[in-house]
Structure formats: structure tokens, C-alpha cells
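Subject: complex prediction, re-run

Hi both,

The earlier run crashed halfway through, so I resubmitted it with identical inputs.
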Amino acid sequence: QSVLAQPPSVSGAPGQRVTISCTGSGSNLGAQYDVHWYQQFPGTAPKLLIYRNKNRPSGVPDRFSASKSGSSASLAITGLQPEDEADYYCQSYDSTLSGHVFGTGTKVTVL
Amino acid sequence: QVQLVQSGAEVKKPGASVKVSCKASGYTFLDYDVNWVRQAAGQGPEWVGWINPKDGETGYAQKFQGRVTMTRDTSITTAFMELRGLRPDDTAVYYCATLTEYDYCDHWGQGTQVTVSS
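This time it finished cleanly. Structure:
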């Protein structure tokens, strides 16, 4: 029942740049609610990666960047590293559902 | 440092209830809402609801209304989530997380596996 759509998977060789899209609608991203991004490794809790559209918490490498425009957002990983292989989720607020919503998730594979 | 430590794994039969706890430390418990999120195997996270530890105000996802209750005990800086009428599709890892004023979760518990099976 995710209302934020993400590609199921993206892949790239070490050092390459990959992007992950997050597509919402007028009741979430398009309503100017912020988007946030999480990284999750198997068997562990999600970890905050980007908050409020484009901000990195301390300790997150600057090869992670993000942006938002209208009803869509994107996360970019430049200089892809083997340790970036994980699942990535976007998250926002939805006014129709009156609650938080997560993206469908994207698995990043480092070739 | 901020820590959220959750209770252990639970196995329940359909129709039963489960109560998961989330012990907070390393910050002022009253300052941040606690969010509850669940994640079924191979699926993305799903928001369950939140509680304001200061006044106990709650907000629940529509699909859980009537089946979930979130409470807190400020004397032990612990939040609780109780889910009733369990079904097999409630099988998931349940996480608590601190919720900032900008609606993102910056610290997460380790998760509690809840398995519903006859």
C-alpha cells in the first residue's frame, strides 16, 4: 500500500553514479511535504540517510546527495562503494492518509 | 548517546494480542514523539502510529485504528505498542523510532519480531 513509488533495483560498478527516484502525488511530495531517505542493511533497522529533502546527518558520506522537485525526489550516490549495497527507502507525510508513508524501496547492487 | 531498546521476539496465535516495549535513554524522553513502524519480510516499512510522551497524544494509521493502542510510562522512559486481533499478515518486525518535528525518524530501536501463527 506504498504511495511513494521507487524502482525495485538499481546497480552500478564501483565508482559509478546511481540515482534512485521517489515519485509521489499531490497529497504528499506535491503538497510540499519534505522527503527523507533511509538506508537499510539486511537484518538491521533503517538508518536515516537524508532528512528534509537534501540534508545529511553527521557521519553520512558526502557521496550521498538528494533533491526534490514537485511530486518527485531523487537520491544520488556518486563514487559508488561496495558498502553502499543496501535497500533505500524514501519517506514523507501524506495529508489524505493523515500519516507517514514510505516508498516501495530500491535495492542497490554494486557490480 | 540515544538508545532505543525494544523487547524480545514474540510468537502469538491468531486473535491474540501483543505488547511491544521501547525503552529510551540518552535524551530527554518527553522531547520527541515515538513513532512505530513495521516491516514484513521482503517488504518496505509501514507506518503504524506515533505517541507524544509528554501528554500521551497518539495518532494511528487508518488501517490499524481500533486494533492498536500506544501508551507510555514516563517514569521508566518507555513507550509501548499493543496490537490486538492478530492475524498472520501482522507477522513483521516492529520498530520504534524517535520522530522529529519535521516528521523523520532519526534514531531507531533494534526491532522486535512478532510472528503470528497457529
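The first strand of chain A starts at residue 9 and ends at 12.

- K.
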